[in-house]
Amino acid sequence: MKISELIKKRRSVFPAQYNGKPIEKEAIKQILEAANWAPTHKKTEPWRFKVLQGEVLLQFGEFLAEKYKVTTEKYSAFKEKKILKKFEQSACVIVISMQRDKKERIPEWEEIASTAMAVQNMWLVATHLGIGAYWSSPALKEFAPEFLDFTEGEKCLGFFYMGNFDGDLLEGKRTPIDEKVEWL
After folding, report:
1. Does the predicted model carry a pTM greater than 0.90?
2. What span, in angstroms and rounded, lies between the C-alpha atoms of 150 and 97?
3. Least crowded by CB within 10 Å, which of 23, 44, 79, 134?
């Protein structure tokens, strides 16, 4: 498949769509290796990933559901269950973080952008492998360092849920690029 076709085929595939089948470790490694080839200014390579599977995946989901319960001002039992269910339905969740360059040689936004490009690479390879994926950046991500080991200057940017799924995805729609470009 041509890269332009793969880019157009990429979709958010949510945990509710996953079929419960595990993802092979080799596929996860392939997805992460693609992330490692994202562009990076001054070669800071700021992306960091924590791969959660099995029991620790469920424990992290329980941790976040509890954090929601004790920190929200507008508690909803439905939302608490929804948080937990995403982790229960996923074969793997990769915690996405950015490690700030200790010398701060470049602006933080550039390192966040590099990390986002790494995630796009992950998403494209997941799509190529037929694995569903979804990047979520809920407010609860701020609590991740309480459960996982983060180094100084490392910032959580969200969770990359992954799972195998059945069936076809809907075709994507975009407004024409000409509506977003000004030729000078």
Report:
1. yes
2. 9
3. 79
